Amino acid sequence: MLIPTLREVPAEADTISHQLLLRSGMVRKVAAGIYTLLPLGNRVVKKIENIVREEMDRAGGVELQLPIVQPAELWRQSGRWDVYGPEMYRLQDRHGRDFCLGPTHEEIITSLFSQEVNSYRQLPLLLYQIHNKYRDERRPRFGLLRGREFIMKDLYSFDKDEESLEISYRKMYDAYNRIFSRCSLDFRAVEADSGAIGGDVSHEFMVIADTGEDAINFCSECDYAANMEKTPCHIHEKELVEEEGPLELVATPEARTVQDVASDLQVNTEQVLKSLFYNVDGKLVVVLVRGDRLVNETKVINYLGANRLDTADSEEMLNNFGIPMGFAGPVGLREKTAVTILGDLEVKCLFNAVAGANKTGYHYINVNPQRDYQVDHYGDFRVAEEGDPCPCCGAPLQVQRGIEVGHIFKLGTKYSEAMGATILDEHGKEIPVIMGCYGIGVTRTMAAAVEQSNDENGIIWPAAISPFDVLIMAVNQRDELQAEFALNLYQKLKRAGIDVLYDDRQERPGVKFKDADLIGYPVRIVIGKKAISEGLVELKWRATGELIFKEKDKIIAYLQENLTAMKSSKR
Fold first, then answer.
1. Residues near 162 by beta carbon (within 8 Å), at least 6 away in sequence
2. 3-state secondary structure of 507
3. Contact assessment for residue 501 and residue 535, using Cβ atoms and an 8 Å cutoff
């Protein structure tokens, strides 16, 4: 077995999962965001795949395999070839025809359906694959959590109407809950934004972890939970309770940040009007929020129906429009450039505010909406924060960090209408098929499990997805009696169906112990002098550190009972 463990933490690894997967000999980096799965890592991935496959089949899914290399014609037909963005790997064949490496498979599965299915009598269909995906991430990082090549399960549902789609969606929702429970993960299903995939209803399955890239808002009083991108923010508009002060230009030579401005002018950060400039599908848009708030870029994209949003280049803003970042504001902005101004709902109620004067070293005070600047559209454009009211019951929201491991979407007819995927209904009428899309990041689930289950000594694998259930070793491999005892027990465990690895290396016991803890096998069995003299075998449970001695004749029954319980229990 190839298990090249490392003693030192690799300098390239930032997250605990990245560090431990490298140190435990599970993966090796080939290039940024591209990894080889070594034997132990491959075994973990296969166990996750098996759980996923069992639950997809249980829910009525049928497995197939779609090609990785996809013709551009299908993507042009759906309208996504020109808007998917630089994350798509594009290539040409020797004849100059355009192709891509599949970042996702909506187009190709919809094309297959349109060729092979024509009647509602052939529905519902739940077609899935477990396959590689390719996305040229701008910043591949965190090992398997954000890579350029990764393994994913994607299932696509085809139904005759919305009621049938709801049944398929619920099947997948329930199956995902079973999958992540069987993997012994602490997770939440949350309402989510559909993003580039499309559709109007979606849920993310988030593994709770402090290192997660996503923030989850949830309510402790009711069942509401949503990705921060999705959580709506509500306010109670208030009337002006103080007299509008005169607009006044003041010098703030060193104040470029909200905190600096608030400190210089002795106001609260919520009294500062923050202006964020974006390039949205080639057009300039400014979003106004309170100084203590963050812009929710997903809400802005959805409100404008845009495909792409990028932060405006500060040097370009200064050279082209004379607007210095750090001193930008809405007063007189239209005199400098054609711009769409969006204001968060709270901005409506922000009176006598402080705002940039579009002049280096200066801000305005007593800035008021309507009188001093105009907003094209008001809306919910900010990020929900801890303590904001729950949109369902009004109780304060709480925030957790999470790692997205699954995402399910109701696509509706987004792809079927564009690509001519139709069926004949009960009345012989041709209608577009109703679709859903359901993905699980298999390699990401592996990394998320490590983020959640580890200690200072290494990984603590959940029993259901550990590379092996049990590791056996002899204290002294050169002792013939200990080595023979260990080998016989190893063979008995294998015959009993227990997934076991025998560490027969000629290494010091301390090295083997450290490797066992680092790799994280659920059970470590040590054959020492007591095994030879008294028939007692030492067992250590990795998760709890519990150390016990068992008679050799009772080990198999004990392991079968306890490992089965661990694999079937929910976290």
1. 434
2. coil
3. no
Measured between alpha carbons, how far is 80 from 91 in angstroms, rounded to an integer? 16
Alpha helices, DSSP H, located in 420-528: 442-452, 480-495, 509-519
What is the phi/psi pair of residue 407, to 5°?
A: -150, 130
CATH topology of domain 468-568: Rossmann fold (3.40.50)
Write out the H or E segment, with its range, that includes residue 173: helix 162-182
Q: What are phi and psi of 9, to 5 degrees?
A: -80, 120
- CA-to-CA dists, residue 379 to 169, 290, 296, 304, 500, angstroms: 30, 13, 11, 11, 58
Fold category of 16-182+404-451 in CATH: BirA Bifunctional Protein; domain 2 (3.30.930)
pLDDT of 317 reads: 85
Long-range contacts from 237-240, C-beta under 8 angstroms, 24+ separation: 237/345, 237/348, 237/349, 238/349, 240/351
- Tokens standing for residue 358: 């579009």
Cβ atoms of 499 and 469 closer than 8 Å: yes
Show me where the domains of the chain are located: 16-182+404-451, 248-379, 468-568
Q: What is the dihedral of CA 168, 174, 179, 185, to 10 degrees?
A: 140
Backbone angles phi, psi at 343, to 5 degrees: -120, 130
**pLDDT tens per residue across span 211-249:** 888 889 988 889 888 888 888 887 765 555 568 899 999
Instruction: Specify the CATH superfamily of domain 248-379.
Output: YbaK/aminoacyl-tRNA synthetase-associated domain (3.90.960.10)
What does pTM read for this prediction?
0.86
Tokens in use for 60? 């009525």
> Whole-angstrom Cα distance, residue 220 to residue 443?
31
Q: pLDDT above 70 covers what percent of the chain?
A: 97
Please, are residues 364 and 247 in contact by the beta-carbon 8 Å criterion? yes
Q: CA 488 → CA 347, 477, 510, 537, 553, distances in Å? A: 75, 14, 23, 13, 12
DSSP-assigned letter for residue 496: T
